[in-house]
Amino acid sequence: MTVHVDHLVIAAASLDQGIAWCEATLGLLPGPGGAHPLMGTHNRLLALGGADHPRCYLEIIAIDPTVRPTRAPGLRRWFDLDDEAMQASLARQGPRLVHWVARVPDAPAALQALAAPPLSIDRGPLLAASRETAAGRLQWRITVRDDGQRLFGGALPTLIEWGGLHPAEHLPPSGLELRGLAASQPDPAPLRAALAVLGLAAGMPVTAGAPGLQARLLTPRGEVLLDSRV
To answer: Rounded mean pLDDT of 65-87?
Structure first.
């Protein structure tokens, strides 16, 4: 199975705060994004290229307070956005890296591999989602647990399978480049095993420490380290 880094997720208490964070931290304003009716969220995007990560981008995402999700009542939004501790942290400390999404060619097979013993990881069911863009309609299938949890402090990726059009194809070059991803866990072994099943272990070191995700970016201001624990 060929698995790629699809995008990094920057969560914000509001989209305006996310845009301001992007300019202050990366020296860039994000490009257009869109709305996700299923989850009641909206986003802005930036191309995140590099030889090792084709068709990759950075997503700034926030809950849209004017929209009620079409997702069934009682089911939570993706990326822990409904988690009270997450919301309090974003309100107090500002936007930050919280997660990443991996692009897979066969999402059901990837889910089955994670669910099989000894891992027995419930990455969540596959949901069909879409949004309209100037270039056409984006359609994808994505794993979202009913409780919205990211798992492993955000270091185990959500899985996505795109149908046709990919958002990175129509994003202008930004000058950003993903140089590396790393993770930390109190016990690194389970996450290492899960990444190995997905074919991602070689490109993502996992060290001992507080649960988290780290991304190194080359920006117009030089190298920037994003850390979900900060």
So the answer is: 94
**CA dist list (Å): 143 to 66, 80, 82, 162:** 25, 13, 16, 12
Give 225's contacts (C-beta < 8 A, 6+ positions apart): 214, 215, 216, 217
pLDDT exceeds cutoff 90 at 178: yes
**List of residues 6+ apart from 51 with CB closer than 8 A:** none
* pTM to 2 decimal places: 0.95
Which tokens hold the place of 16? 């305006």
In the beta sheet, which residues pair with residue 206?
A: 183
Per-residue pLDDT tens digits for 78-122 = 999 999 999 999 999 999 999 999 999 999 999 999 999 999 999
Taking the C-alpha atoms of residue 204 and residue 217, their distance in angstroms, rounded to an integer, is 15
The CA distances from residue 52 to 147, 160, 170, in Å, are 33, 18, 19
Would you state the pLDDT for residue 50? 74
- CB under 8 Å to 88, separation ≥6 — which residues? none
3-class DSSP state of 16: helix
Secondary structure percentages of the chain, helix, strand, coil, to 5: 25, 35, 40
Q: Which amino acid is at 179?
A: R
pLDDT at 1: 62
Distance separating alpha carbons of residues 128 and 108, to the nearest angstrom:
13
Structure tokens at 74: 């009682």
Mean of pLDDT values over 11-40: 94
* Mean pLDDT rounded to a whole number for the chain: 93
DSSP single-letter state for residue 37: T
